[in-house]
């Protein structure tokens, strides 16, 4: 089998890897749950290549991410749930439907700014998914019987719970803000952060680990709220901070290596002095992060 620019060659490769008699033993052991962490990891690696402005890595990581889509589609086809073609058809239908100002008739194009059009389209899609779930023999990836779908779909249920915690908090807060559950000034948010920080200090002082975790979550949630109010993506901001930390720590390691020393050899005072030098190198004041 030869490489190809045709997406169907990738589908053939995935099917061959999952062939019971001749496939790859590791691939044959996998299911949706075991592959999901790799899917998340590949998405992060795509984002990392973009942040590093590396086109070569981005090409490779996009291929790895595409493989994840093909992998899940193969698993679904084996269970009679759907195929890769169904995935493509579903997303093309969604994109055409959600952009009537681009793909619609003359009337739709002239109504591109019609108020509520986007929400109306999404509501229609939600209703269709509900009907599809009601009529499908099963919607469970595991093959277990599907329970009757009678529960109410909550306003926040559209936000996937598996998102990274900072992004999840941000999206949940935005969703709540859509219906007016929000502060209109930053001062109450700052006061809430101070309150949560005080409550965290109290439970830490009495060594209540469970309560400390709970209060830490409340504090982080409040910080995300402040970031959202100022239009800052907390996930992006924290990744930027981590990248800065890694660069500065790498500077410490490099300087020590040039001196014939290791991190283990250095004292904390020496590393802190080099940290200050790293901050000066990247133009950060002593009061900066």
UniProtKB/TrEMBL annotation:
Reactions accelerated catalytically: ATP + H2O = AMP + diphosphate + H(+)
GO molecular function: ATP diphosphatase activity
UniProt KW keywords: Hydrolase
One Pfam family it belongs to: MazG
Enzyme category, top tier: hydrolase
Domain NTP pyrophosphohydrolase MazG-like per the UniProt entry, residue ranges: 31-103, 186-248
Gene Ontology terms: biological process: dATP catabolic process; dGTP catabolic process; dTTP catabolic process; dUTP catabolic process; response to stress; TTP catabolic process; UTP catabolic process
Record InterPro entries: MazG-like_dom, NTP-PPase_MazG-like_C, NTP-PPase_MazG-like_N, NTP_PyrPHydrolase_MazG
Known EC number: 3.6.1.8
Protein family membership: Belongs to the nucleoside triphosphate pyrophosphohydrolase family.
PANTHER family, A to Z: NUCLEOSIDE TRIPHOSPHATE PYROPHOSPHOHYDROLASE
Name of the featured protein: Nucleoside triphosphate pyrophosphohydrolase
Gene (name only): mazG
């Amino acid at each position: 089998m030869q490489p190809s620019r045709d997406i169907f060659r990738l589908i053939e490769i995935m099917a061959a890897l999952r062939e019971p008699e001749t496939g790859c033993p590791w691939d044959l052991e996998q299911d949706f749950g075991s592959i999901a962490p790799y899917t998340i990891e590949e998405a992060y690696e795509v984002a990392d290549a973009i942040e590093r402005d590396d086109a070569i890595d981005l090409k490779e990581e996009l291929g790895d991410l595409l493989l994840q889509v093909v992998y899940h589609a193969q698993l679904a086809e084996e269970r009679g749930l759907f195929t890769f073609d169904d995935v493509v058809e579903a997303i093309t239908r969604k994109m055409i439907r959600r952009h009537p100002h681009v793909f619609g008739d003359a009337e739709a194009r002239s109504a591109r700014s019609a108020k509520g059009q986007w929400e109306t389209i999404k509501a229609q899609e939600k209703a269709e998914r509900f009907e599809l779930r009601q009529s499908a023999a099963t919607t469970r990836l595991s093959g277990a019987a599907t329970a009757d779908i009678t529960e109410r779909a909550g306003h926040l249920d559209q936000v996937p719970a598996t998102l990274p915690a900072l992004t999840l908090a941000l999206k949940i807060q935005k969703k709540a803000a859509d219906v007016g559950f929000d502060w209109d000034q930053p001062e109450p948010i700052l006061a809430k952060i101070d309150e949560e920080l005080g409550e965290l200090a109290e439970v830490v002082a009495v060594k209540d680990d469970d309560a400390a975790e709970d209060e830490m979550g409340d504090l982080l949630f409040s910080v995300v709220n402040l970031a959202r109010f100022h239009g800052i993506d907390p996930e992006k901001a924290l990744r930027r901070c981590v990248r800065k930390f890694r660069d500065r720590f790498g500077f410490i390691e490099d300087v020590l290596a040039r001196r014939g020393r290791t991190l283990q050899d250095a004292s904390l005072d020496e590393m802190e002095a080099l940290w200050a030098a790293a901050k000066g190198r990247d133009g950060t004041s002593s009061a900066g992060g």
